[in-house]
Structure formats: C-alpha cells, structure tokens
Write a structure and sequence with these properties.
Elements lengths: L4 E10 L2 E11 L4 E6 L5 H8 L7 E6 L2 E3 L4 H6 L2 E4 L11 H5 L10 H4 L6 H14 L17 H15 L3 E5 L7 H16 L3 E5 L3 H7 L2 E6 L2 E6 L6 H9 L5
Parallel strand pairs: 3-8, 3-9, 6-7, 7-8
Antiparallel strand pairs: 1-2, 1-4, 4-5, 9-10
Helix pairs in contact: 6-7
C-alpha cells in the first residue's frame, strides 16, 4: 500500500541546534499514527516540517508517492493536509460556521459575489451543519453561536471539524485533549475514529499514553531528534513505549 504521506531522512537544524536528525515516517491511508516523545524530542519540529510551517534543511517528502516541497502551510493544505494546533487557531468572536470557513470563505454567486464581494453566509452555515452531522458532533446544533460561548471540548470539535471538512488526505492533531476533561476527551477520540472510518489518515501528537494506546494503529516514537522506533499497541505495552522514549529500552 502506498503511504498517503511519507518522510525520508528529514533533517532540520537551527544554527548548531539539531531539531531533527534523519527522521523517517510513513502514514498509510485510513490509519491513526500517534507521535510520542519527551519534551524536546522533535515532535513539534517534525509536524511543522510535514505541514509546511517549517522548511526542512534536507530530506524528502512524498504525498501518495509523489515528491512534494511545502514552502508554507497553504502548500500543505492544497495537497490535502490539515493541521489542528494545540492553540486551536479559532476566532472567538465569530460563529461556528464562520470558523469552519475561516480563510476559505465562500462568496455569493453572480455580481453580488464578484463585484460586491458578498459572502454566502446561508450556504456556509448549511454546509457547516452537514459537516458536523456527518462527524457525529451532536453538541453543536446551532452553527450561529459565537465560539467564545462554547466549552473547551466544543471548540476542539470546531477545529477538528474544520480540518475534516477540508483535509482530504491527512489531518494532524497536536495534543487535542490536553486541556479537556474525561467526557470531552472521549468525544474528541470518537471524532478521531470517525475520521479514520471516513478513510482520512490521522497523525496524533499526544502525551496521554492511555489515549494513544486506545486509538492508534501504530506509534512513532521520537527521542533526541531521531526516530527511536515504530511500534503497535499489540506488539508493545505502555511501559515499553515509555522505556523506548526515555532510552531505557531500544528496538
């Protein structure tokens, strides 16, 4: 099976500081790949290089087997890669529908859209409702509610729904449950499973080992800027994963 996203020998240096040191990664279609590692292991740098936020010093990137070069996040989005950062990047003053189409607003047809640049608010709200329903998000019935009035889990759902609506191939989630309670975390994990069931590949960055072992198909372990190995929840335990992550055990 051709990986939907593949990285080979990624290197990223900041002067004399090495952020990534020859990291390789493969993400298969419809797979949840967790990326774990201690602070400073290179997780964020790896994700930024995969999604165009950073340009690798050297190495190769492939989407569906075709070589790509992302110079900015928009390039990754055009290739079907969407990222939900830990900060969410939602606009609190705008409603749910406006946040789903943030930066991709749809104009009305005809003169109103081309000359007067009027937005198709009704159409965007209808599509937003359809997207939320398809993802099984039942806690967001009213897409006209400002995001600032939502709970943390609901805001996370808005950010994930936006990524799912436009990420045709890959959705990258950076610590999606870090600031959430148990119930809201379970809702986000269910969203991740729904994305996989729709055939969308997911990269999940997380420090929460129980959640990683609950939803991930494979686990990529970062250590000191390198890939310490790739395991599965069936082949290794959480204790093994932590041992590999800290260097107490090697693959």
């Amino acid at each position: 099976m051709t990986p939907v996203l593949e990285a080979k020998n990624l290197v990223k240096t900041y002067g004399r500081v090495v952020g990534l040191d020859g990291v390789g990664l493969q993400l298969l279609p419809g797979e949840i790949l967790a990326v774990i590692g201690d602070n400073g292991a290179g997780k964020s740098t790896l994700i930024k290089c995969l999604t165009g936020a950073e340009i690798p010093t050297s190495g190769e990137l492939f989407v569906n087997g075709e070589p790509v070069s992302f110079k900015r996040p928009q390039d990754a989005r055009a290739a079907g890669l969407e990222t939900v950062y830990q900060t969410l990047a939602v606009s609190p003053a705008l409603d749910v529908a406006a946040n789903l189409f943030l930066g991709r607003e749809v104009r009305r047809k005809g003169v109103l859209g081309s000359v007067f640049r009027s937005l198709d608010v009704k159409g965007m709200r209808e599509r937003a409702r359809a997207e939320l329903t398809e993802l099984g998000i039942s806690t967001l019935q009213d897409v006209t509610v400002p995001v600032e009035n939502l709970s943390g889990g609901q805001r996370q759902a808005v950010a994930v729904a936006r990524a799912a609506a436009f990420g045709s191939k890959v959705v990258v989630l950076d610590e999606p449950t870090a600031a959430l309670g148990v119930r809201e975390s379970n809702q986000v994990l269910q969203l991740i499973r729904t994305l996989r069931d729709r055939g969308v590949a997911v990269i999940l960055i997380s420090h929460n080992m129980p959640q990683v072992f609950e939803v991930a198909d494979r686990i990529h372990i970062q250590r000191l800027g390198k890939c310490a190995g790739t395991i599965t929840p069936q082949s290794h335990s959480m204790t093994d994963a932590v041992a590999i992550m800290t260097g107490a055990q090697t693959l």
